[in-house]
Design a protein that fits this description.
14 strands; Rossmann fold; 434 Repressor (Amino-terminal Domain); 352 residues; alpha/beta; DNA-binding; six-stranded parallel beta sheet; 3 domains; homodimer
DNA sequence: CTGTTAGCGCATTCAC
DNA sequence: GTGAATGCGCTAACAG
């Protein structure tokens, strides 16, 4: 015995029709209507048609939350990302969203910012919404605080990490071999006869530390020695992309002051590299003749700047697609791998 | 009389504790637990403490969907956007998400693509999820098909359009005076003594048509005549930003072939302008001495290309913030305006 | 101060 | 073939 669901808009009361409304109009019970909606068999064709017609006429739309309550399934998945404005993160969210939406899931996406407490807070929000799975994009989710929070709040559901790993039975990982990718970059530059390579480092995320490690390893393998003063930390830690160029500029300024004989610089991200390029050119340094520059992420920025930027393509979008597939595999009971590793590509343009 | 909610993960059964579990352990009724959770008064301090402790120990998290069912309120809002990868759209989604999340709402975001049928489909998804409000970002949502779909599926809730208007009682609009902004751009270029202005047009969205109209008006007001052959349509209609530069290049190629005496070109977007810049420079055309170039959107791309790009800042992020505020005003019963108009800024850089 | 009852919208037994 | 009853997890109105 139910009436119309009622909610308010500026005082006015608005209603959505329920299966009970339809049932009453059709002179049948709610269960019959439910069966028709879900295409269940065993309904007389004539009543099925009558109900279908009424559903249409009344603009009936099922309340998926109510359905989810009884089915124990919300068809929601959560996406967590530090800052969606970072262009390769945007692409990640896009592909995940498309893939999950196609399979009947809706995505709840949050930009968490860099702080662990915030990340934990958003994990709890996902728990409250009873998402059936989650994808966390970015190596900065591979922290102990996040691990504990997942264990506490998301232990019942599959969680996929993109570009990071966490040892938990319900956590799956898509890894990207950025260390090796950076080694490749170093090897390429060394192969051009360059000997004084510098590295501009971004905030010390696990991913950035792996890249730096790749720089060191690559140097060693090429028989070059790493001067610590040639490793420059870009200042600040804002994730807003509009600040990254300026941070690259500052770092490049320091580099020129400290390391006059530098002949190549690898940057942790494309935008840092763009800032670096600008400063080099402004100081009359010929790129790539005197100094080569290489970025990471293969963003559009690298295609636009002058000279165009060589970059390590770390396949963020591709790994996010893999993440969506792994999540779907688990959700739909297919077997899948707990860890997948993707390899990077070197994109060579004018700056090297 | 209820037990544990049960759901499955790879065959294993996992449970979330409910208020009934807590109630049983505390030896009280579910309503008492509910009162404690919601901070309602009139509970003996000792039992309140006991229940709080149990909630903590059991990692209790309220099921907001169940709560929403009885409260007739999901605390969800929907965001629709053509393509989140377009950089100014990304910023829009970011600010809306931050704002709504701060106020206890979660956002369901969909990239709809350009087709009306898809937009309608996503509007229906929002209805199924019972969002309490929606923000549609982009002028291409101001179509008749969308209007009808809103009327049919979202008539009970506030809907805010960013950069477009729709005549419906529950629809609010944030408008941007891009027509006037483009006029300003024309006036600026004409003020430099330029006489043969061209326009590179993007897909014919309402917004782009207003800009084109602004171009025509601006020309007229400056006493210049518009040669129709100086209005070039960029080919294709993919919203993926990675294609936009190429489309700008093609258009610029046509322009150079058809209009040898052109001395300024306004482009409908920054990325088209970037492509245009590239082609001009490759053909030995001096920018801005021989030809000035101006974009729209004030994206990071314009700060990166060489020469840096003058652009009309159409304040997408600011208008999205306004949209969020309008939506919150309506949702929380405050009075607000049905239409807000924002003015653009001209950002002058090297390309003019 | 707290328990009982009812119902949000829906799907799923079990009867008939 | 179809209906009545039950419960998903939660809040609210009414008792006591």
């Amino acid at each position: 015995m139910q009436g119309k669901a009622s909610c308010r808009l500026h005082g006015k009361v608005v209603c959505k029709t329920t299966i009970y409304d339809i049932a009453k109009q059709a002179g049948v019970s709610a269960s019959t209507v439910s069966r028709v909606i879900n295409g269940k068999p065993g309904i007389k064709e004539s009543t099925r048609q009558k109900i279908k017609k009424l559903l249409e006429e009344n603009d009936y739309t099922p309340n998926v939350a109510a359905r989810g309550l009884v089915m124990q399934s919300t068809r929601f998945i959560g996406i967590l990302i530090e800052d969606i404005r970072v262009s390769h993160h945007t692409d990640s969210v896009y592909v995940i969203e498309q893939e999950m939406t196609d399979c009947g899931y809706a995505c709840i996406t949050f930009s968490t910012g860099p702080r662990d407490e915030q990340k934990v807070k958003y994990i709890e929000l996902l728990e409250q919404r009873r998402v059936e799975g989650a994808i966390l994009v970015g190596s900065m989710f591979a922290t102990e605080a996040v691990r504990q929070s997942i264990e506490k709040h998301l232990s019942g559901i599959p969680v996929v990490l993109v570009n990071g790993a966490l040892e938990l039975p319900n956590v799956y990982s898509i890894l990207i071999d950025e260390e090796r990718g950076t080694q490749d970059g170093v090897a390429y530059l060394a192969g051009q006869g360059r000997k004084h390579l510098a590295y501009i480092m971004d905030v010390a995320t696990p991913s950035n530390q792996r890249k730096l490690q790749g720089f060191r390893l690559g140097m060693m393998q090429c028989g070059l020695t790493v001067e610590e003063s040639y490793i420059i930390q870009a200042p600040g830690e804002d994730t807003n992309p509009s600040g990254a160029i300026g941070r690259g500029r500052v770092a490049a300024g320091q580099l020129l002051a400290k390391c006059p004989d530098v002949d190549a610089v690898l940057c942790a991200t494309d935008l840092l590299a763009v800032g670096c390029l600008q400063v080099l050119l402004e100081n009359g340094v010929a790129v790539p003749r005197q100094v080569a520059v290489m970025g990471v992420d293969n963003t559009l920025y690298g295609q636009i700047c002058t000279p165009t930027l060589s970059t390590m393509d770390n396949k963020l979008a591709e790994s996010s697609l893999n993440a969506a597939h792994v999540l779907l595999d688990v959700l739909e009971g297919r077997s899948t791998s707990h860890k997948i590793m993707l390899l990077t590509d070197l994109i060579l343009r004018q700056s090297t």
